[in-house]
Amino acid sequence: MSRVELLTPEGLRIDGRRPAELRKITSTTSVLSQADGSAYLEHGNTKVLAAVYGPREARRRAQVLHDRAILNVEFNVAPFSTGERRRRTKNDKRLLEMASFVKQTFEPVVITSLYARSQIDIYLQIIQHDGGTLQACINAATMALIDAGIAMTEYVCACTAGWVESEAAIDLNHIEESSDTSEVTIAMLPKSGKITLMQMESRLHVDKLEEVFTLAGEGCKQIHEVIDKTIRERAEDLAKKMQ
Amino acid sequence: MPSLISPAERDYILKGIECNIRADGRQRPDYREVTLETGVVSQTSGSARVRIAGGTDVLVSVKAEIGPVLVDPETGDGADKGQIICSVECAPSASQQFEGRGADELNNELTQMMSRFLSHSGPAASSFLSTTSSSSSSSTAASTTAKTTSGAGGINLSKLCIIPGQQCWILYVDALVLDYGGNLMDAIFMGTRAAIYDTRIPKTEVQDLGDGQFEFEVLDDAEDTEEVAGREDMPLCVTLNKIGARHIVDASPLEELCTEAKLVVAVNRSGELCGLQKGHEGGIEPSLLLEMIQSGKTMGQSLIKQLDASIKKEAESDLAKRQRGEPVHKLGFFAQ
């Protein structure tokens, strides 16, 4: 396979961005009528829909926890979301793994002790895939949880960064992701600066890790600003309608 | 999707329908407002999103891929035909009832119905009709006047064939139900019609190498594409719900709970019946059945007219924008 040139001599990336530049993020909340909370988020061409149901009665009695709520995350990829059409079953191991990442990310943030003996469901639907699905899903889930009015200690914002050829780059797209670049996804609580998720799948020199890591952290803070703006706009809009 | 309804609520809906005023102010034969947008998913050959004002939200995508032809081993049919493969999936986000495996049965029902209505081949469908036309509740019936080249589904499958007996285009029609607000089937079919209208299939060049050997090349010029032949003759569905002694169209979730019997009528633009399906546990009197089919037919035809006009309008405004060099923005989920 011929290697794609990911960085031009001028230092621009394949889609014309600079290394530390995020793709355009657009988002909105309350898009679904049945769900208790929902959000739709676009990171460039990656499009994700998140829906939250709950807190509600747990489906399986055996799972009920007497002192807190259980989080349930389901991941769904539309068959037409990728370049090649592919149907995935519900038991796809990769999807189950992604779901458990999202679950672990939110468990320390959602104040589950407030909703004892209940279940909170987060359904994630990928409509279009262009790299960075995990970060998009976490960001969308944060917005949907807020939209559902579920108590959380803080926002959770996720961002990816990687080492593209000779430089650290943020928010990798599908072409960059699939051409053997090492990629780190982190989820951060932007106010306290804590990391709730960190995931890396390929090789990266330890000296470069810090730079990539800082860049992803910066990205999380930027994403937080964008998400927060949308949430506030939607809340103001609601407040206006109530008057 | 609520699963229970109180007797008081049921009574309210029932009496309202009797007086021709429904809970949301509509009359019996009124549809809710439909929002339609095509070309929403860029990785597909064609796509559309349909939203019915009460909440139903369906995303339909068409992907054209090349695959081997499917030949019926008994009749030898299909060697010179392309294929349409339909699938409907209800996302768990659409309704409380769809969590876990809750949507499997509904997915299967909708997928089967859609495949039957869309990918029927002409002669097979007509012969099927002649054997089952005596039973009024036959699951599928096709118009006898349907041409042999395009079956009840309308789409000209022969045009999708690349090399007879070997390769053809396969149209994968995937409908994704994102939100549930009643009347799924009609929304899915509206979305499918719009998505097929949006679909462009690349042109192919076939070379004869002699000895019955063929080779083909797919032209990757974005301008050099074809529309799906016979798309105007695709059917649209109208679901009629019998509540009390009356019937209504475009039922809301609560009205669907009061429904005794449901009749899906698939009709094309010339008013030919392309399929019928009776659902739910209640029965329908033969006289009412005929009346329902008749009103389904007229409503379907006017729906097709409105839908085609709105698809055409959108396509024209997109084209005008492209010619002026302006970017075409699709609203997608930002259209509320």
From TrEMBL, chain A:
It comes from the Eukaryota. The keyword Cytoplasm applies. Keywords: Cytoplasm, Exosome. Its main location: cytoplasm. InterPro entries: ExoRNase_PH_dom1, ExoRNase_PH_dom2, ExoRNase_PH_dom2_sf, PNPase/RNase_PH_dom_sf, Ribosomal_Su5_D2-typ_SF, RNase_PH. Component of the RNA exosome complex. Specifically part of the catalytically inactive RNA exosome core complex (Exo-9) which may associate with the catalytic subunits RRP6 and DIS3 in cytoplasmic- and nuclear-specific RNA exosome complex forms. Exo-9 is formed by a hexameric base ring of RNase PH domain-containing subunits and a cap ring consisting of CSL4, RRP4 and RRP40. This is Ribosomal RNA-processing protein 41. It comes from Mortierella alpina (Oleaginous fungus). The gene is EXOSC4.
UniProtKB/TrEMBL annotation, chain B:
It comes from the Eukaryota. It is found in: Cytoplasm; Nucleus, Nucleolus. Residues 31-202, 233-297 form the Exoribonuclease phosphorolytic domain. Belongs to the RNase PH family. Keywords: Cytoplasm, Exosome. GO terms for biological process: exonucleolytic trimming to generate mature 3'-end of 5.8S rRNA from tricistronic rRNA transcript (SSU-rRNA, 5.8S rRNA, LSU-rRNA); nuclear mRNA surveillance; nuclear polyadenylation-dependent rRNA catabolic process; rRNA catabolic process; TRAMP-dependent tRNA surveillance pathway; U1 snRNA 3'-end processing; U4 snRNA 3'-end processing; U5 snRNA 3'-end processing. The keyword Cytoplasm applies. InterPro entries: ExoRNase_PH_dom1, ExoRNase_PH_dom2, ExoRNase_PH_dom2_sf, Exosome_comp_Rrp42_subfam, PNPase/RNase_PH_dom_sf, Ribosomal_Su5_D2-typ_SF. One of its GO terms (cellular component) is nucleolus. It comes from Mortierella alpina. This is Ribosomal RNA-processing protein 42.
